[in-house]
Every structure is written in C-alpha cells, then in structure tokens.
C-alpha cells in the first residue's frame, strides 16, 4: 500500500493558535492578537535555555513587566477574592502545573482579554501522579513562570493579578498518599468518563485532576476558567463535573477550551514534558503523533456520512476503520525510522471516541453491527511513548506524549 500523503496545508499551517477576544466581556479592539514570537521559539531549545528565554521575553515595542502577587495560602486567596467580589470584578482563572509555555500563556491571554482580574494557579498536584510516575522530576520553575506571566497584558493593559502557588499541605490539609487504596478523606470522581483513553493507562489520573480542580475552583471561585484542548479528556470530564455537581463558580458554560498550541514548524503539541526530550527526538520523532492524527483526519474526511434519511450501508464502520488504519500506519512507519536512528516510539493507543460519552467508537461499531453504525463526530486522540536507546542498549526516560484532533465538531 502507498504511504498516505499529507496535504501541505496540514503539515505547514501556522500552528501557533492565538486566542481572539470573543467580544463578550470587552468591546475594546485587541491590540495583541497573538503571543510574542519569542514564546514560540522556546520549543526549539533545551529546557534550561527556554526558561531564560521566557524570562527575558518582551512583548515588543513599549512592553513593560509587572510582577503578579504570589499567594501561597487559601486564606489569603479568599481575602483577595472577597475584595474582587465586593468591587464587582469578573475573575478569570487558568489552572496549571507550571513550567509555562506558549500553550499556557495563550490561555492566560484569553483570560486577560475577557475578565477584569486573572488568577493563574501553579501547583504540581501529587494526587494525579501514580506512584511510578514523574512527580519528583516534574519541572518546577516558579521564578521563570512568574517572569513570563509578568510580560503579559490585555489590550487594555490588564495584567495577571495573582499567581496562586500553594504547598501540598495547603491543598491537602489532611495529608495525601498517591496510593489510592490508602487514601482517606474527600476525593472527587467523574464516573464513566475516566477509565478510557488516558484513563486506560492512568487509571487514577482523573480522580486526582478532578479532586484538585474542585479544590481550586472552591478556593478561586472564578467567573470563567480556561483549559487547553491538548488535554481533551480532562476538559470533557471537568465540564461534566461542573454541570453534575451544580458548580456556581464557574458555571459550566464559562469553562472555555482553547485550541492546542503547536510548534510552528513540526506541529508538535506544546507540553511541559517536551522538556524531557532530546532535540533530535523533539524535532524529528515526537511530532509523529500529530502527523498520524492528520493522516487519520484526512481519511475521515474522505468517507462521507450518508445524508439524514438515506441508508448507511456500513459507511460509519468503514469510516472508523479507515481513519484508525491511516493513523496507526503513520505511527508504524515513523517508529521504524526512529528505531534506526536510536529512538524508540511506542504507541500506547490511538482511538476514536464519542465527544460526550467518550465511548470507544471502534468497539461500538463492532458491537452494533457494521451496517447500522453511523458516526459524524468523534475525538481522535492518542498517546505515544518516546525514549532514546542509549549506546549500552538501555532505554532512557520514557516520555508520554498526548495529542488529539476533533472530527466533525468543535469544543
Ligand atoms: N499545547 C497546549 N495548547 C493549549 N493548551 C495547553 C497546551 N499544553 C497544556 N495546555 C493546557 O494548559 C493547562 C495546564 O496544563 P499543564 O500545566 O499540565 O501543562 P502541560 O504542558 O499539559 O503539561 P504536561 O507536560 O504535564 O502534560 C491545561 O488546561 C492544559 O490543557
Ligand atoms: C488541570 C491541572 C492543572 C490540574 O492539576 C492539570 O491536570 C493540568 O495542568 O492540565
Ligand atoms: N496536563 C496534564 C497533566 C498531567 O499529565 O499530569
């Protein structure tokens, strides 16, 4: 079979997504519609260099920096929030684990454009790491994160007001073990959406995410919050949390999910964990996942769903099959090339899932019977494990890369 050929527009489009004001909260024209070019550049350098690049970054002519206030306790945050409420300020919130990159900064920019005040949390949440995962080595870069946030401003010169950087004991006052079976106290889970896709390999991950986000939402009480499409399952789950548990702050419709920010040349989704990759792996092989998703998207678009009322005669099942085949084939090809170059790429999964139930569509197509199966929207997502093969044959650290594309719908 022939290798799938990706149209140029799919591999060379400008990946830097710039958040444009939705004009809901503010009518003022945007002075800056995208992030400074310097933020794009950091992904082409090593982690250490990138941090200092960011801290030195300016917004271009006339830029100035203003350091946000750093708050470490829930008590101080609540005092600040009470005052904002009394002054009728609309508060936007961006939760992060720090080691900020242009993807995070795009979310913060959206909050600045659409709210009076902006809070960014930086907290590496132990509850979402399994005991064997990278909690201890996860990059912690508060000084350069603070410097990067100091550079941002809205068209009306609104700045990041607060960096909320609590300790683990502040967020887990009764203590915490990462071993779920041994945990005591209040934890939050969203059932039915947390065991597939990322949850298949990280079974306790979303329990940790949902628990910490519940705490953060209670502490910040934001009017609006901003998340990235890169972690698509997290967004679907958190929206469900907000609606099922009747959260007043933020209300579910005020949780915004913004497109994935990518390396402008390779298309690699920006991620704090990309700092673990060698330049060779980051530039040549890690983008394989995105290239696979693009090939899948092309295959999806080539199989049209029958119009409403017309018989399906198996197009739905064929669409699923061809889409996944195209994507998986790209990974297989790229893994073979990488292997020859001393890099191991191992596919954890590529799947198609229903955008709201997250049901696995490949399995559904098989169980429903292919002639009756219809599908017009899906999340195609995947996880790829990348590692270097050392000269002594040992593998270096394994980095988990995730990515997704939305087929037939938007968030
Ligand atoms: N490339 C990106 N584009 C848009 N949003 C992003 C991107 N990367 C992360 N985000 C979003 O930023 C928020 C904080 O994410 P987080 O601090 O875990 O960063 P990360 O880069 O995803 O880190 P990790 O390497 O641990 O996955 C989340 O809402 C996440 O979806
Ligand atoms: C939402 C979040 C900050 C919770 O720790 C984390 O999962 C992330 O950064 O995506
Ligand atoms: N953005 C996801 C954070 C994590 O993998 O823990």
Report how far the terminal alpha carbons are from each other. 35 Å
What level of helicity do the residues show?
25-40%
Strand portion, in percent? Answer: 5-15%
Number of DSSP-assigned strands: 9
Rg is: 22 Å
Task: Name the shape in a single word.
Answer: globular
Low-confidence stretches: 1-63
CATH homologous superfamily label of the largest domain:
HUPs
* Domain tally: 2
Ligands (ions, cofactors included):
adenosine-5'-triphosphate, pantoate, beta-alanine
User: What is the structural class?
Assistant: alpha/beta
Give a quick account of the main beta sheet: strands, pairing sense, barrel closure: 6 strands, parallel
Catalytic activity: (R)-pantoate + beta-alanine + ATP = (R)-pantothenate + AMP + diphosphate + H(+)
Pfam families: Pantoate_ligase
Organism: Tilletiaria anomala (strain ATCC 24038 / CBS 436.72 / UBC 951)
EC number: 6.3.2.1
Q: What topology does this entry show?
A:
Elements: H1 8-12, H2 37-41, H3 47-56, E1 69-71, H4 74-86, E2 91-96, H5 102-114, E3 117-122, H6 142-150, E4 162-164, H7 168-171, H8 198-201, H9 205-220, E5 224-228, H10 232-244, E6 255-258, H11 279-285, H12 288-302, H13 315-340, E7 343-353, H14 361-368, E8 378-388, E9 399-407
Parallel strand pairs: 1-4, 2-3, 2-5, 3-4, 5-6
Antiparallel strand pairs: 7-8, 8-9
Helix pairs in contact: 3-6, 9-10, 12-13, 13-14
Bound molecules: adenosine-5'-triphosphate, pantoate and beta-alanine (BAL).
Pantoate (PAF) is lined by residues 95-97, 125, 128, 209, 212-213, 231, 234.
Give a brief rundown of this model.
The protein is an alpha/beta fold and 411 residues long. The protein has 14 helices and nine strands.
């Amino acid at each position: 079979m022939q290798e799938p050929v990706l149209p140029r527009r799919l591999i060379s489009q400008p990946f830097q997504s710039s958040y444009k004001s939705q004009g809901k909260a503010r009518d003022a024209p945007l002075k800056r519609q995208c992030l400074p070019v310097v933020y794009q550049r950091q992904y082409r350098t090593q982690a250490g260099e990138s941090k200092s690049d960011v801290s030195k970054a300016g917004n271009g002519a006339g830029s100035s920096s203003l350091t946000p206030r750093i708050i470490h306790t829930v008590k101080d945050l609540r005092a600040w929030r009470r005052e904002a409420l009394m002054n009728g300020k609309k508060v936007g919130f961006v939760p992060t684990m720090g080691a900020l990159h242009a993807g995070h900064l795009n979310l913060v920019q959206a909050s600045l454009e659409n709210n009076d005040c902006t809070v960014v949390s930086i907290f590496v949440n132990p509850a979402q790491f399994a005991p064997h995962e990278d909690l201890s080595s996860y990059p912690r870069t508060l000084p350069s994160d603070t410097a990067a946030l100091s550079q941002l401003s809205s068209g009306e010169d609104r700045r990041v007001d607060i960096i909320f950087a609590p300790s683990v004991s502040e967020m887990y006052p009764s203590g915490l073990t990462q071993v779920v079976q041994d945990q005591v106290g209040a934890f939050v889970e969203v059932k039915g959406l947390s065991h597939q896709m990322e949850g298949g390999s990280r079974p306790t991950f979303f329990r940790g995410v949902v628990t910490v986000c519940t705490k953060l939402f209670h502490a910040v009480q934001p009017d609006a919050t901003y998340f990235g499409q890169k972690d698509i399952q997290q967004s679907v789950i958190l929206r469900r949390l907000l609606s099922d548990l009747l959260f007043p702050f933020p209300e579910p419709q005020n949780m915004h999910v913004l497109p994935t920010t990518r390396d402008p040349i390779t298309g690699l989704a920006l991620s704090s964990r990309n700092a673990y990759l060698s330049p060779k792996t980051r530039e040549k092989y890690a983008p394989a996942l995105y290239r696979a998703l693009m090939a899948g998207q092309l295959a999806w678009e080539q199989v049209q769903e029958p119009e409403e009322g017309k018989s399906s005669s198996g197009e739905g099942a064929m669409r699923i099959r061809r889409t996944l085949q195209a994507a998986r084939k790209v990974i297989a090809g790229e893994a073979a090339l990488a292997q020859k170059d001393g890099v191991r790429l191992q596919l954890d999964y590529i799947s198609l899932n229903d955008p709201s139930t997250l049901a696995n569509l490949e399995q559904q197509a098989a169980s429903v019977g292919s002639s009756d199966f219809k599908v017009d929207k899906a999340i195609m997502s995947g996880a790829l494990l990348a590692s270097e093969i050392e000269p002594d044959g040992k593998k270096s650290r394994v980095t988990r890369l995730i990515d997704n594309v939305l087929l037939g719908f938007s968030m």
